Amino acid sequence: AQVDKAGHKHFMAKEIAEQPTVIAEAIRHYLPVGEDAVHLPGDGIDFTKIDRLTLVACGTAFYACLTAKYWFEKLARIPVEVDIASEFRYREPPIPGRTAALFVSQSGETADTLAALRYCKDKADQILSVVNVPESSIARESDLALPIHAGVEIGVASTKAFTCQLSVLLMLALKAATDRGEIGEEELQAHVSALRGLPNVMSAALEQNEAIRQASLKLSEARDVLFLGRGLMFPLALEGALKLKEISYIHAEAYASGELKHGPIALIDNNMPVVVLAPRDDLFDKSVSNMQEVMARKGKVMLVSDAEGLAEAGDEVWQAIRMPQVHDSLSPILYALPAQMLAYHTAVAKGTDVDQPRNLAKSVTVE
Ligand code: G6P
Q1: Residues whose CB is less than 8 angstroms from the CB of residue 145 and which lie 6 or more positions away in sequence, other chains included
Q2: What is the Å distance from ligand 1's center to 249 Cα?
């Protein structure tokens, strides 16, 4: 089917805006209304027969895997390894028994990811994939392919596919937690109702578009930008930095906040914007002390947090971006939106070709 920009200036803007709709679709598919259990298509998979998971992908899908590691380990107590497909395939790692290998790919055709899947074929107990294109090679060659229901994604920089990948991976982690008896009925229901409410919370986050555009005008003057996050926000910091460099061509890097003192703090001066992704959760106090370390060296902190977090951080921050309140485990899905909007508006301010950034391809089917 023909896809148009539906009144938006770029496909990327349209794809950012339609996330509440496509996420609702993905969630409805796996959690039909009126039913309580997390359903998976096909024959499903029994996580009591699996002792470890290996997650493999490239680019943005790799950051979805890094996020999923936190969920599978915390909720289902299942050990998880995450690897970049091009490293994994040539390292030829040993695959112990009772391992499930899971491949995440929007296109389902990325050459390195497909090769990594083929390497696992006669070694892993189960080959799973999380894909946007159900007819793709990666989907066809998996024992079980879970579609993400994002619809066609045209912008080279992945947006809605990323948040849909995250939603499906979280639901899969909940399924693993249920199979393994690691999660009680009440906790499961809390996650399920938070997931069902997520599209509305995402719509509220999108209302910050104009505030984020204003902040992006400032960011567009920077030569380098540092992103910081802890826990579930660390992979998202990596994704935020990737988005920014892909489309605005501003050099950006991300660190786990706790690593600040082990290197990147040497870069901090009054020219260095530091984007801190930090909802008011258990780790928030630690993020505040990291921000203070940055501000004490005149670094410019752009804090993305909820109302409570922003109030606690005080008015010394350079830019504040307010997000709605959300269940702790859903924060990477929600906070992906400001990360995407920041990159988008910064790129627009710089006048780059947002949907077709130089040197990049939507799908890398050759090595
Ligand atoms: C390319 C795209 C990225 C994408 C990556 C992996 O680099 O520009 O947006 O994340 O490939 O693609 P896949 O289709 O496997 O998710």
Answers
A1: 42, 128, 129, 130, 131, 134, 138, 139
A2: 17
d(CA 228, CA 239): 11
DSSP run (H or E) holding 216: helix 209-219
pLDDT in tens, 190-219: 999 999 999 999 999 999 999 999 999 999
Quick check: pTM over 0.80? yes
Q: For residues 177-205, b (16+ Cβ closer than 10 Å) or e, as one string?
A: bbbbebbeeeebeebbebbeebbebbbbb
- Residue length of the chain: 367
Residue located nearest, by CA, to atom 3 of ligand 1: 59
- Please tell me which residue in 5, 74, 350, 362 is annotated as part of the active site: 362
Identify whether the C-beta of residue 93 lies closer than 8 Å to the C-beta of residue 123.
Answer: no
Could you tell me if 283 and 230 are in contact, meaning their C-beta atoms sit under 8 angstroms apart?
yes
Q: CA 222, CA 225: separation in Å to the nearest integer?
A: 7
CA atoms within 13 A on the CB side of 78: 34
For residue 75, what is the enclosing H or E element?
helix 59-76
**Cα 293 to ligand 1 centre (Å):** 35
The alpha carbon of 54 is separated from its chain's Cα centroid by a whole number of angstroms, namely: 17
Q: State pLDDT tens for residues 60-106.
A: 999 999 999 999 999 999 999 999 999 999 999 999 999 999 999 99
Calculate how far, in angstroms, residue 258's C-alpha sits from the geometric centre of ligand 1: 28
Q: Is the CB of 360 under 6 A from ligand 1?
A: yes
Query: No. of H helices and E strands in the chain?
Result: 13, 10
In the annotation, is 362 catalytic?
A: yes
